[in-house]
Design goal:
The complex is a heterodimer of chains A (349) and B (461). Chain A is an alpha/beta fold and 349 residues long. Chain A has one domain: 3-Layer(aba) Sandwich (Rossmann fold), CATH 3.40.50.1110. In chain A, helix 3 links the parallel strand 1 and strand 2. Chain B has two domains: 148 residues, no CATH class; 280 residues, no CATH class. Chain B is built from 19 helices and no strands. In chain B, helix 9 packs antiparallel against helix 18 and helix 10 crosses helix 17. The longest helix of chain B is centred in the middle third of the chain and has 37 residues. Chain B starts with 5 loop residues before the first helix and ends in an 11-residue tail after the last helix. The mean pLDDT of chain B is 90. At the A-B interface, helix 1 and helix 7 of A face helix 9 and helix 19 of B.
Chain lengths: 349, 461
């Protein structure tokens, strides 16, 4: 054949393969992120929510958002829509760091002049003491999907994972497979209620066969009150940034999530002091921002005291998640809980 | 910039290649273009190191002009001292200070001086040029051609160690001369082979070796795991470094320049001497010509030859890394070569080929444990495990990658032809081969985008 023809075959094949693979990525647009891709009814299909959710955050259909970790994932957007008369996307991500949560909210806020509601689930990631906190988990976080430039997504898509998700997306578009998450980001990750087993749940909650108590010391640790002032919560600066990024008209609801009572620290411990300090500082922060309410479900209450309400010490049943939606709506309206299920810690006017 | 990065493969290389051939008619333009590209390539890691590279090249070029009959020795001493002090400060200062502190029973807080990439390569390359100038075996080159000789990006970071008389004369050859498409095609094919070796074999073997070597520091490995770890690193370093060399040679050929062969199926060697004739060949030649022979070589009897071999390989070990494990690795190979020299001259016994191969492989693999382990205790623990010192039972329930990759790697390393022989000498100008090479390149591009870029092992030297 000769080397000239070999070179032509080689370069031709390279160009052909590049066009073919590039074309597949562009048409299927697995993360629904590419500019000018064909308008198809795509769904979030990446296993890693950090790849799936930016497209939902940019979707103009939604005017309200939930962010948090898996402790907030069970809040159904449909239920929130009904309770608060809004169009919610639930973009809570498993084990999301404070930074990752702030980033997804940033994408959401960037596209909307005035979001209606922002519900922010507050758990341990927002109340950890230290000089700094990790930005990411072991899961990959595609920063390039979170900036304002869609064009820089293109070079980052040249990886096997893209083709894997493109295959799933193509399968969905052809009706061959189901979506992993709803178009609003919600997915019920719990087993069906018929599989609920109280014994197993208790094992998970108590790390023991049956219920037990955590004893509270008689008095607080010496000098703890002085120490409290010196504690630094590195994620609070991010939370302040999140609140600043949202317009004053947006209703911001900060929710301390309902950890099972056994997971909540006993009184007079350093851990209890840390949570108290964290709640106090976040409440003070909320008071500086308009339309901001802090609801505390992380208290001993009829919800958190009952084992039957939980699959494990962090995750409630679906029924309780729906009850939380009602209570959040009630609390957002400034009304107290009739059954001490939450406390309104503070409100910014 | 890494060869195994999308930035290099999709942007830097095509743009540089097209611009080079667009300037093919003007030697000055195409050479300045390659110099500029090489500086961008080097500076992409850390632009602050570019002045060091440029300064080193300029200083050596000026020194090369200063050789006169009366002062040649002085200039050589000055030049070698300059180069060694540069590498001494950047690469060995912490090592020597730490060793001295250890001898004195003191503590040394590391200065953590940044190690400029490729410093061992470009420094030794320039020492060899000064030595050749001293011997009257090298002309004075123009600044541009000398600059390009040292900084030419395919060989700048990790070799092959190219001598001035192997490269500079090629610069005047017109790039569009006869055989253009053959050079482009064979170069691209060798680049693809090197990429596949690096991203599919070496990086996969690393996923087995790295966790095992890391855990060996905390607890002894089982015998099986110690051998798996050693075998994994044995293939990792071969496919990593020979893959890099293939890419370097292939890339240079695409620009119409031929670099020397660096590997020739070394794991088929049936003696340690043969191993060093097949492994990192350009370094072996450097050590032979600029250390072993000046130390006396075989001119002063067996005892002096053994001393010369041991000293040469001691320095070779130190060249690889600023650490005592590297020094002992070098000494071990020096002694191995000395024993081999005595054996072959005095014993009269010739081992069967298979026995020589097995003995060589065990020796080389034992050496790789020292080379890879972070410290002596870890190395000793792994070696003890390999030879039954920590019991015979047990194995990890899972490795970082399927160990079958090691069988595949062994097959390629022991049975297959050398990649240079396959890509540069054989006739394969068929459409299906072109399509296979294009597919391999495309898959490699996607693969390097799929994980964090792993650097080449020899970048640290």
């Amino acid at each position: 054949m000769g080397w000239q023809r070999y070179w032509k075959w080689l370069t031709g094949a390279l160009i052909g393969l590049a066009l073919f693979l590039g074309g597949v990525i562009w048409i299927v647009d697995p993360y629904d992120s590419l500019p000018f891709s064909p308008p198809l009814e795509r769904m979030p299909l990446a296993q890693n929510q950090r790849y799936s959710y930016p497209a939902i955050a940019r979707n103009p259909v939604f005017d309200s958002i939930v962010i948090g970790t898996s402790t907030m994932r069970l809040l159904r957007p449909d239920a929130l829509n009904e309770a608060l008369d809004a169009r919610f996307a639930n973009l809570s991500m498993n084990s999301a760091t404070a930074y990752e949560q702030a980033r997804i909210l940033e994408v959401f806020a960037r596209r909307r002049p005035a979001p209606k509601y922002a519900i922010i689930g507050l758990d341990v990631v927002w109340c950890t003491i230290g000089e700094s906190q990790p930005k990411y988990t072991f899961r990959r976080f595609p920063e390039w999907m979170y900036d304002a430039n869609p064009w820089n997504d293109i070079p980052n898509l040249l990886e096997f994972k893209t083709f894997e998700v493109a295959g799933r997306q193509a399968g969905y578009l052809l009706g061959l497979r189901k979506a992993r998450y709803g178009a609003d980001g919600y997915a019920n990750f719990l087993p069906p209620p018929s599989e609920y087993n109280l014994e197993k749940a208790r094992k998970s909650i108590y790390r023991a066969a049956g219920p037990r108590r955590r004893d509270a010391p008689a008095a607080p640790p010496p000098g703890i009150e002085k120490k409290r002032a010196s504690w630094s919560f590195p994620s609070h600066a991010l939370l302040e940034g999140v609140l600043n990024a949202l317009p004053g008209a947006t209703r911001k609801i900060l929710v301390f999530v309902p950890y099972h009572q056994f997971r909540q620290p006993p009184a007079n411990t350093v851990e209890a002091a840390r949570w108290r300090e964290c709640k106090a500082r976040i409440t003070a922060m909320a008071r500086r921002h308009a339309n901001t309410t802090v609801l505390d479900f992380m208290i001993p209450s009829p919800i958190t005291a009952r084992d039957e309400n939980y699959w494990d010490s962090l995750h409630t049943t679906n029924a309780i998640a729906d009850r939380l939606v009602e209570l959040i709506a009630r609390g957002a309206g400034g009304r107290s809980s009739s059954d001490s299920e939450y406390v309104i810690l503070g409100q910014g006017q | 910039m890494l060869f195994n990065s999308q930035l290099f493969l999709l942007l830097f290389l095509p743009v540089t290649l097209i611009a080079y051939y667009a300037f093919a008619g003007s030697r000055a333009r195409r050479e300045w273009l390659l110099i500029a590209a090489s500086l961008i390539f080097y500076g992409y890691w850390d632009y602050r190191l570019v002045p060091l590279l440029v300064g080193s090249i300029a200083a050596n070029w000026i020194l090369a002009h200063a050789f006169r009959a009366a002062n040649a020795r002085l200039v050589l001493v000055l030049g070698v001292a300059l180069n060694l002090s540069l590498i001494g400060v950047f690469k060995y200062a912490d090592f020597f200070a730490g060793s001295l502190a250890w001898v004195l029973g003191a503590q040394h807080s590391p200065w953590n001086i940044i190690l400029p990439l490729g410093i061992s390569f470009f420094t030794f390359q320039q020492i060899s040029y000064l030595a050749d100038r001293y011997r009257g075996e090298a002309p004075v080159y123009g600044f541009r051609e000398y600059f390009l000789y040292v900084s030419f990006f395919p060989q700048l970071i990790a070799g092959p160690i190219v001598r001035h008389n192997e490269l500079i004369f090629q610069l005047e050859l017109p790039p569009l001369r006869k055989g253009l498409y053959e050079r482009l095609s064979r170069g691209a094919t060798l680049l693809a082979i090197g990429l596949v070796k690096k991203v599919f074999i070496a990086d996969t073997a690393a996923r087995i070796a790295d966790p095992l070597f890391a855990s060996a520091g905390a607890a002894a490995l089982s015998m099986i795991d110690a051998w798996v770890a050693t075998a994994a690193f044995t293939f990792q370093i071969y496919f990593d470094f020979s893959g890099y060399s293939d890419m370097a040679i292939g890339l240079a050929l695409m620009f119409g320049l031929t670099l020397p062969v660096n590997f020739n199926v070394p794991y088929r060697a049936a003696s340690i001497r043969e191993f060093w004739r097949r492994w990192h060949i350009t370094l072996s030649h450097f050590l032979r010509d600029y250390l072993y022979i000046p130390f006396g070589g075989r001119r002063h009897g067996k005892l002096m030859q053994s001393a010369a071999l041991t000293l040469t390989m001691f320095l070779g070990g130190l060249w690889h890394g600023a650490g005592w494990t590297f020094v002992v690795w070098g000494l071990m190979h020096g002694l191995g070569l000395a024993v081999h020299a005595w054996w072959s001259r005095l014993s009269g016994i010739v081992l069967p080929e298979w026995a020589g191969w097995a003995l060589t492989m065990v020796f080389v693999m034992t050496g790789w444990v020292l080379f890879r382990a972070p410290d002596f205790p870890t190395a000793m623990s792994i070696l003890a495990s390999m030879f039954g010192g920590n019991g015979f039972a047990g194995a990890a329930s899972a490795y970082g990658a399927h160990p079958a990759i090691l069988v595949l790697a062994a097959g390629v390393a022991l049975i297959g032809p050398s990649s240079q022989a396959a890509a540069l000498e054989r006739g394969y100008d068929r459409p299906w081969v072109a399509f296979a090479v294009a597919s391999a390149l495309t898959l490699s591009v996607i693969m390097v985008g799929s994980r964090l870029h792993s650097e080449f092992i020899y970048f640290q030297f």
